[in-house]
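Notes from the 1:1 (GR / supervisor)

We went over the backlog. Supervisor wanted to see one worked example end to end before approving the batch request, so GR pasted a single chain during the call. The sequence is below; no edits were made to it. Supervisor asked that the structure be written out right there so they could see what the output format looks like.
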Amino acid sequence: MRAIVAVDNNWGIGIKNELLISIPDDMKHFVKYTKNKIVIMGKNTLDSFPGGNPLKGRVNIVISRKEKIDKDVVLVSSIEEALEESKKFKEEDVFVIGGESVYKQLLPYCEKCIVTKINKTFKADAFFPNLDEKSNWELIEESENYNYDGINYKFLIYKNIDVKCF
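Structure output shown during the call:
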């Protein structure tokens, strides 16, 4: 299992259930990794997509304790159920895509984390754990710097050296 996320300087990921910024090349990066794969998300993340619709060309596993969802998704009611459902697929094909609570709960099970690091600080109310401060996460790949609308960003890959089994 892997996580994929875009973070700012403070590891902020969103505000009011929206991304902090939409960078076209980051969106392409996200599609490159997740197209034809399995994505795990919370209900608020699903709601943040255009029309609240699941991502096309992917198996969408949505965690929601409260609601039924009349969309083409695999609905589970807990993190444990999401982990069980993900066992049906190759581990490297499963991506955790948010939000904050889902990331925090599933990160220990992720072998890798693909991070778009945006060199700016935004106002945020949702955060991703700072992998630079976690002893079990190592930075293994770092791209060159890119620029979008005056904002620098780069793509990073972290490896979890102590993956929790499920």
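Supervisor's comment: The longest helix spans residues 24-34.
Batch request approved.
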